[in-house]
């Protein structure tokens, strides 16, 4: 069998000469796909092994027509000089002549590469071993999409049932994948098939009545699929096969409709106690889950939970770990109250077929199904908008509106179990949205390990900022925080330098005007990496938030903590993007893209075929700036802004003609309009009222386009909510088991008041709650399905270090497995200060590591002082570790009246003081508990 692959060309018709010269800029845009019938017809098919899986072709068959290239005749009489071919259509063939094969023994072999002088390159290979082979095809040093291609080689006279075809090795999500099973002469026995992978794959088989069976399956999500082919309950040779399905991840939308049982508990509860309470319910089987507490109108305490079993349940309500009065409570659940997904009735054409740009309807009837939450998700080529109307009689009317044609998967679960028929496969037809998509893929190599005492560097690009507005600190695993040096390597490219003193995960904070830059705080591991993968990749930059038509939109991607892998970046929207990629060879890279049309765009960032945290990013590309660049902002508040108090700034139009508008976006994402008032013909006052503490974004637009610097970031409130100071620990962040309640602590001590958002993504929803404890907040949850869960912890919108945490869950299935499910809770935190562990109150100081003997000082103020004038000296503790500086001056009539200490970064200080009386003074300088060299100093006036 011969397969032919081609590039996606940006033109409809062109000669080879045109492609070789005019389209050199597109050499990075390589994709591969199967050949169509007309392209296959021009090839001469030689007899012998199949080109993809190298199995003998069955005898008696002619070359197939249509969309498939069928088996050829008489595999056993293959001529020695006949070799199978794999043909590639290429822009510029010289750059693609790179291919090699890994044999089952591990040895490497190379196929011959021949130029056909017609825009194609042929790869020929004569197998030397039986077993699974891997064909690596590279373009400009990078694997092409789908590479490596896997194929199985069998002996000509094996007599076994064999399978061959592209669907056994690779495919594209949302498109049918085909393969053929050759059963001639195999005798009696049952043939069975199974396809397992990231999504449900509908399988269809057709008996060709010639000893072959054609098989088609439809993968609806990218990833690795396991294809099992059995004959007589035994795997055929080569089975199970692993097929690598590529393609952009399916867009997914989900909603949940609560339908829980509510029970009133005896006794009243005070407002001040309510936020300190948590509750859990234990079923007769021993399954224990957190449940929600609510205050009932009569003042009593109520709980809300989903009944899963019949019988007596035990509810525990605790305050700071201690049972409240009358706890635990006992509740009896009857048969009619337990949610039963099998009794849910669904109807409507929207579960069978659909059309784009209209509402596709279906109805859900839960009246006979008891109590249970309803969960609906729809995934497919577009993110379908979902509408749900609860008729409040146990029935719901649901509609969805896709914007792209293709196959969609509708998952419908009740009480954590699929209803009958779910997941449903729906074929959606109609016009698409003409969405354009561009993608690049790059291999990321592992960065060399850093060791204690080595020079560590973290780079980021941030154009348009002033270096002295940037600052950085590094916190070691033991909690010691030190200033770090920031250097500008080139225009807009900065590097944070530090020398670690211990192994482990360090926290690198980078701030611009006292606000964390996108991506900060960073995790930086000194020594071997603890874990890797997509959840350890982070991205940040203005190009993921906003952009302008025709102008470069830029962002950074940090992959150092993820280890080696493949990084893929896609831009999807009204126009095709030109993507530029720059690798800084230190575990970070810089991406710039330009689009030609304004509108909504999606930026997808994947690592090893998995989305990184917060991907895909949705943003609006505004029209060309026009006169917006003329506007400037004055008197913008940089500090002292308080929640619920108005703040304002000035916008000068500088002769621009058009409409000015502005809005403020709070840390929680709530938007509020700003009040704009004309001061004179060319000047406006913009006033806004922040409602929350934390970092707000002020969007200022002119004629619908952001003015330079917009959105402006503003910290509101005195509380310094610092995500770099938040830490999470506990068994709930390690290995967990299904059906076992687990928890972890989010330590917010000394991090200020802010907004804590906890999100758990996994193969099932989890019952979760979050309650206040002495050191911060305790999050409890119960997983119901084994698999991998990712726990994201954000503080004021920033991931804390280590987030998202990867948690492995083992055990039995207690609910039905589905697509990725999301559970979340948001808590407004209060300012907390850590307490001493031995019963004493007071702040616990960090464990300082310092050496006062390495502190140096200089200046006239150390020897002589002038009455009534400022006397100066400087102190340098750059090499003395980290500690607190104490300065005191004692004179003839007591302590000196005025002493000012200014930190000049990197443990350099400038000290000034004023004395009012003549006489002899003593100057004491301590670094922590120890005097620096020369202290105490004697000062004369």
Primary descriptors:
Immunoglobulin-like, actin filament binding, 7-stranded antiparallel sheet, mainly beta, 3 helices, cytoskeleton, Filamin-A, 81 strands, 941 residues, 6-stranded mixed sheet, 7 domains
Quick overview of this protein structure:
This protein is mainly beta and 941 residues long.
Return the average pLDDT rounded to an integer.
79
**Distance from first to last alpha carbon:** 99 Å
CATH class of the largest domain: Mainly Beta
Radius of gyration: 33 Å
Q: CATH topology of the largest domain, anyone?
A: Immunoglobulin-like
Q: Examine the secondary-structure arrangement and name the CATH architecture of the largest domain.
A: Sandwich
Shape: globular
Count of alpha/pi helices: 3
Q: Number of domains in the coordinates?
A: 7
Helical residues, percent: under 10%
Structural class category: mainly beta
Low-confidence stretches: 1-97, 836-842
CATH superfamily caption of the largest domain = Immunoglobulins
Please state roughly what percent of the residues sit in beta strands, choosing from under 5%, 5-15%, 15-25%, 25-35%, 35-45% or over 45%: over 45%
Largest sheet: 7 strands, antiparallel
DSSP strand count: 81
Family: Belongs to the filamin family.
GO biological process, one term: actin cytoskeleton organization
Organism: Melanaphis sacchari
Keywords: Actin-binding, Cytoplasm, Cytoskeleton, Repeat
Q: What can you tell me about this protein's structure?
A:
This is Filamin-A. It is found in: Cytoplasm, Cytoskeleton. It is a single chain. This protein is mainly β and 941 residues long. Strand 77 and strand 78 form a beta hairpin. The protein is globular. The N and C termini lie far apart (99 Å). The relative contact order is 0.06.
């Amino acid at each position: 069998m011969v397969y032919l692959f081609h590039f996606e060309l940006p033109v409809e018709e062109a000669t080879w000469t045109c492609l070789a010269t005019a389209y050199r800029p597109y050499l990075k845009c390589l994709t591969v796909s199967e050949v169509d019938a007309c392209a296959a017809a021009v090839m001469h098919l030689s007899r012998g092994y199949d080109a993809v899986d190298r199995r003998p072709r069955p005898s008696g068959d002619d070359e197939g027509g249509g969309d498939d290239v069928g088996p050829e005749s008489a595999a056993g009489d293959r001529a020695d000089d006949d070799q199978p071919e794999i043909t590639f259509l290429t822009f510029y063939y010289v750059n693609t002549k790179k291919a090699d094969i890994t044999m089952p023994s591990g040895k490497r072999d190379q196929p011959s590469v021949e130029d056909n002088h017609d825009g194609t390159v042929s790869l020929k290979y004569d197998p030397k071993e039986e077993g699974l082979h891997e064909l690596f095809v590279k373009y400009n040093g990078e694997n092409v999409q789908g590479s490596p291609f896997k194929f199985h080689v069998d002996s000509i006279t094996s007599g076994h049932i064999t399978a061959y075809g592209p669907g056994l090795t690779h495919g594209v999500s949302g498109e049918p994948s085909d393969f053929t099973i050759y059963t001639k002469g195999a005798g009696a026995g049952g043939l069975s098939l199974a396809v397992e992978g990231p999504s449900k794959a509908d399988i269809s088989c057709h008996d060709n009545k010639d000893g072959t069976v054609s098989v088609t399956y439809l993968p609806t999500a990218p990833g690795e699929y396991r294809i099992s082919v059995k004959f007589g309950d035994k795997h055929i040779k080569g089975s199970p096969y692993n097929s690598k399905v590529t393609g952009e991840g399916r867009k997914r939308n989900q909603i949940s409709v609560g339908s829980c049982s509510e029970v009133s508990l005896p006794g009243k509860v005070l407002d001040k106690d309510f936020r300190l309470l948590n509750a859990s319910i234990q079923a007769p089987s021993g399954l224990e889950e957190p449940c929600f507490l609510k205050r009932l109108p009569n003042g009593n305490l109520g709980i809300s939970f989903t009944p899963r079993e019949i019988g007596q349940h035990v509810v525990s309500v605790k305050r700071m770990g201690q049972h409240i009065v009358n706890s635990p409570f006992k509740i009896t659940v009857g048969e009619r109250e337990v949610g039963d997904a099998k009794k849910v009735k669904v109807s409507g054409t929207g579960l069978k077929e659909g059309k784009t740009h209209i509402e596709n309807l279906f109805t859900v009837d839960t009246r006979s199904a008891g109590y249970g939450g309803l969960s609906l998700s729809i995934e497919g080529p577009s993110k379908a908008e979902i509408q749900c109307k609860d008729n409040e009689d146990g029935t719901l009317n649901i509609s969805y509106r896709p914007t792209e044609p293709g196959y969609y998967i509708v998952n419908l679960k009740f009480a954590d179990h699929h209803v009958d028929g779910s997941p449903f496969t729906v074929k959606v037809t109609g016009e698409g949205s003409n969405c354009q998509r561009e993608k690049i893929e790059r291999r990321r190599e592992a960065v060399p390990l850093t060791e204690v005492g080595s020079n560590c560097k973290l780079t980021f690009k941030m154009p348009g900022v002033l270096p002295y507005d940037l600052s950085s600190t590094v916190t070691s695993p033991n909690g010691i925080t030190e200033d770090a040096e920031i250097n500008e390597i080139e225009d807009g490219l900065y590097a944070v330098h530090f020398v670690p003193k211990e192994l482990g995960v360090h926290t690198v904070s980078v701030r611009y005007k006292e606000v964390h830059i996108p991506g900060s705080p960073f995790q930086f591991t000194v020594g071997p990496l603890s874990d890797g993968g997509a959840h350890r990749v982070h991205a940040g930059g203005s190009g993921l938030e906003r952009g302008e038509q025709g102008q470069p939109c830029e962002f950074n991607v940090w992959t150092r903590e993820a280890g080696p892998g493949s990084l893929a970046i896609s831009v999807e929207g009204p126009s095709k993007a030109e993507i530029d990629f720059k690798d800084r060879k230190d575990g970070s890279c810089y991406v710039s893209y330009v689009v030609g049309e304004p509108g909504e765009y999606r930026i997808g960032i994947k690592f090893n075929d998995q989305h990184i945290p917060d991907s895909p990013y949705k943003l609006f590309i505004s029209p060309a700036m026009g006169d917006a660049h003329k506007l400037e902002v004055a008197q913008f508040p940089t500090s002292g802004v308080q929640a619920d108090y108005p703040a304002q700034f000035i916008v000068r139009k500088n002769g621009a003609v058009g409409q000015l508008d502005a809005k403020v976006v709070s840390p929680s994402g709530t938007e509020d309009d700003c009040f704009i008032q004309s001061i004179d013909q060319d000047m406006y006052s913009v006033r806004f009222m922040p409602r929350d503490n934390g970092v707000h974004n002020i969007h200022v637009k002119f004629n619908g386009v952001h003015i330079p610097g917009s959105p402006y970031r503003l910290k509101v409130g005195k509380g310094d909510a610092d995500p770099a100071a938040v830490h999470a620990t506990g068994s709930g962040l390690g290995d967990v088991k299904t059906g076992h309640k687990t928890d972890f602590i989010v330590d917010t001590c000394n991090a200020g008041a802010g907004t804590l958002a906890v999100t758990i993504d996994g193969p099932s929803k989890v019952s979760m709650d979050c309650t206040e404890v002495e050191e911060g907040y305790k999050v409890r949850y119960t997983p119901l399905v084994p698999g991998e869960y990712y726990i994201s912890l954000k503080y004021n919108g920033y991931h804390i270090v280590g987030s998202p945490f990867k948690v492995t869950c083992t055990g039995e299935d207690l609910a039905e497995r589905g697509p990725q499910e999301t559970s979340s809770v948001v808590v407004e935190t209060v300012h907390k200060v850590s307490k001493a562990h031995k019963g004493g109150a007071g702040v616990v100081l960090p464990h300082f590591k310092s050496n006062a003997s390495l502190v140096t000082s200089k200046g006239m103020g150390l020897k002589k002082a002038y009455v009534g004038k400022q006397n100066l000296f400087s102190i340098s503790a750059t090499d003395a570790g980290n500690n607190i500086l104490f300065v005191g001056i004692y004179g003839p009539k007591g302590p000196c009246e005025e002493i000012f200490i200014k930190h000049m970064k990197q443990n350099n200080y400038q000290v000034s003081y004023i004395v009012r009386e003549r006489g002899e003074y003593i100057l004491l300088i301590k670094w922590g508990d120890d005097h620096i060299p020369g202290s105490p100093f004697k000062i004369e006036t």
